[in-house]
Amino acid sequence: MTVNQILSTKGNEVYSIVSTITVYEALKVMGERNIGAVLIIEDNVLKGVLSERDYARKIVLKDKSSKKTHVNEIMEKEFFTVKPSDNLDYCMELMSTKRIRHLPVIENDQTIGIISMGDVVKAIIEVQKNTIQHLDSYISGSKI
């Protein structure tokens, strides 16, 4: 299974913000959209990623104000991306080794979506269920 297959099921709507808004305003967007991370896109260029983890570690634990701190002060500027053709094993390995939960999807220098660790795990479980079902049918001699 590929990233593109996840996006075709999940959808490829990209929620983005600019880096000059406050962290509080960014959190409001994330809450309204029920998302754990938001992309920072300016002039159609992906500049960074802001996640709930960034908020917890860089605002709450450092006793800063989310209403006074701007996104560009805490956003993750060094991030990893994937292509629609990348397979889920690669994504899982990247997320595990780099300890990240969200991967922007880039095609032709454009951000076309974002996948989360939950999306990847859900897709892998679905593939495994289908494999088990096929093997069970093969062993029992029935056809699917």
UniProtKB/TrEMBL annotation:
PROSITE patterns recorded: CBS
Domain CBS: 8-66, 75-132
Entry keyword set: CBS domain
Top-level taxon of origin: Bacteria
Classification via CDD domains: CBS_pair_bac_euk (cd04623)
PANTHER family (alphabetical): CBS DOMAIN-CONTAINING PROTEIN, CBS DOMAIN-CONTAINING PROTEIN CBSX3, MITOCHONDRIAL
Protein name (database record): CBS domain-containing protein
Classification lineage: Bacteria, Pseudomonadati, Bacteroidota, Flavobacteriia, Flavobacteriales
